[in-house]
């Protein structure tokens, strides 16, 4: 009987020992096992072993939230019984800080207080942006005054609360305000800067409107009213409304759109003039390219086009300061002119006299010197032909220069002109949303109409887009992003600053 009782007692003893060992093992947390309070209700205190009571946790979360709203410093409190036995308290806390990303990414203004009650260790870790306001010596003295005395009495809640309040008093001291402004991203709005921002915004806007109008007048593309319209007062009113819409209303629409997508929340208003300059600068660049196309459309003669473009660039070189992108176009134009020097250099006739190049703006078709096949090559832009005439008009020389579409065509085996294009897709029956289409792939000449059939091709049915699903997806993504941003830290990092000790 004694042996049986002893056996049961021994068995129960080992079972109890097993569970207490398991419980002990569970309290030695690894980095991954520490609960992130931001992902568990959006708080600041991680208290997995229940060392702090609920009232203390609630008070700390409220205090730290208020603390962050006033100073923008992000603080995390982690208190556990034990942690990874392979790590020292500094290594563990430092890795935990950077794993969570405490503090704002731009300013690294985070602060972590890590506590292990079984090892009787505490450790502060500061982000690089908070070290100036909370240096190591300040954290050490704060811990000695408020943390350690309470911890020696096992009153962890009081020690942590008093420490957080003491750190708040340090941060909010007036003499620290100037230093805080160097690190923290959420600064108070300066009314003077706001007014200057609006002034710069308007000046940039008006200046660019003036530049656009000057470019249009130079190129002769400013829309002109008809004589009847010009006599009517209503047209003048229309112009005023139109200009107001362009100068004032459209930018406000852009600002509203930016606000809707959170852009204005991301960037301070003082950057708005810079953003506006970038937007209008790129718009002016696009307008400039359109203006070049307008000049090109006025000239069939390449030399006349280059000369007018050169004249325009020489007179309006200063628009580069409004749009640096245009400098690239200026550079490309210069390179093309340099490459064309030999092309437009006069050639000599049989009498060693300089010949005169035919102005193709006057004689567009190049008659009677070009054949119809050569003219077709010009139309499809495989060749540009320069026609040189002797001064007595008795001699002429034709020189061919590869044009923009030269590489897309080959010489036609039938007519001998570079007007033959390979693998042309010719639609026979259009595809619809209910049936497939049909096409043929051929080689064909644009001049003599020689055609060579290659094969038939089936065109796939058209597919209707589903904007509602994409909109829903975007909304869901946006909502998810917003939700995650409120339940996570700011992505800050630490270089190892802080202080620690024992009690």
UniProtKB/TrEMBL annotation:
Q: Does the keyword Signal apply?
A: yes
Source taxon at top rank: Bacteria
**Any signal peptide, and if so, which residues?**
1-25
Q: Where is the TPM domain?
A: 45-169
Could you tell me which Pfam families the record lists for this protein? Answer: TPM_phosphatase
- Where exactly are the transmembrane stretches of this chain? 197-215, 240-264, 276-295, 316-335
Comp. bias intervals (Low complexity)? 468-488
- UniProt name for this protein: TPM domain-containing protein
Q: Which organism is it from?
A: Pedobacter yonginense
């Amino acid at each position: 009987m004694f042996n049986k009782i002893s056996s049961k007692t021994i068995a129960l003893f080992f079972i109890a020992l097993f569970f207490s060992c398991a419980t002990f093992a569970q309290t030695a947390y690894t980095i991954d096992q520490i609960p992130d309070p931001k992902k568990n209700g959006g708080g600041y205190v991680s208290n997995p072993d229940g060392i702090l009571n609920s009232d203390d946790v609630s008070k700390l979360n409220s205090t730290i939230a208020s603390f962050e709203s006033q100073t923008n410093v992000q603080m995390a409190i982690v208190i556990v019984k034990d942690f990874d036995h392979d790590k020292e308290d500094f290594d563990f806390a430092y890795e935990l800080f950077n794993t969570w990303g405490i503090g704002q990414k731009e300013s690294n203004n985070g602060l972590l207080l890590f506590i292990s009650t079984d090892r009787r260790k505490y450790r502060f870790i500061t982000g690089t942006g908070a070290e100036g306001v909370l240096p190591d010596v300040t954290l050490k003295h704060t811990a000695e005054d408020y943390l350690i005395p309470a911890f020696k009495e096992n009153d962890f809640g009081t020690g942590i609360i008093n420490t957080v309040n003491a750190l708040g008093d340090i941060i909010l001291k007036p003499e620290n305000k100037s230093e805080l402004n160097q690190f923290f991203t959420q600064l108070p709005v300066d009314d003077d800067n706001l007014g200057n921002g609006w002034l710069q915004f308007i000046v940039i806007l008006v200046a660019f409107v003036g530049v656009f109008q000057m470019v249009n007048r130079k190129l002769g593309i400013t829309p002109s009213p008809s004589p009847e319209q010009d006599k009517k007062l209503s047209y003048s009113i229309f112009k005023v409304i139109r200009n107001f819409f362009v100068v004032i209303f459209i930018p406000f629409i852009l600002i509203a759109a930016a606000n809707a997508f959170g852009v204005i929340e991301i960037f301070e208003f003082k950057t708005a003039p810079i953003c506006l300059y970038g937007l209008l600068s790129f718009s002016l660049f696009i307008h400039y390219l359109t203006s070049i196309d307008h000049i090109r459309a006025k000239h069939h003669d390449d030399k006349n086009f280059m000369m007018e473009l050169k004249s325009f660039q020489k007179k309006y070189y200063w628009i580069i300061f409004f749009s640096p992108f245009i400098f690239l176009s200026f550079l490309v134009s210069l390179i093309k002119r340099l490459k064309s020097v030999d092309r437009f250099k006069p050639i000599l006739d049989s009498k060693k006299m300089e010949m005169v190049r035919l102005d193709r703006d006057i004689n567009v078709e190049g008659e009677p010197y070009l054949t119809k096949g050569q003219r077709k090559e010009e139309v499809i832009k495989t060749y540009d032909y320069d026609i040189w005439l002797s001064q007595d008009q008795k001699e002429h020389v034709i020189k061919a220069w590869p044009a923009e579409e030269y590489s897309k065509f080959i010489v036609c085996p039938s007519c001998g002109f570079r007007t033959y294009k390979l693998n042309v897709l010719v639609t026979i029956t259009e595809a619809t949303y209910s049936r497939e289409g049909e096409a043929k792939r051929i080689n064909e000449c644009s001049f003599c109409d020689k055609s060579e059939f290659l094969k038939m091709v089936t065109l796939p049915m058209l597919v209707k887009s589903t904007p509602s699903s994409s909109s829903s997806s975007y909304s869901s993504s946006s909502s998810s992003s917003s939700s995650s941003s409120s339940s996570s830290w700011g992505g800050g990092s630490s270089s190892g600053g802080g202080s620690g000790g024992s009690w």
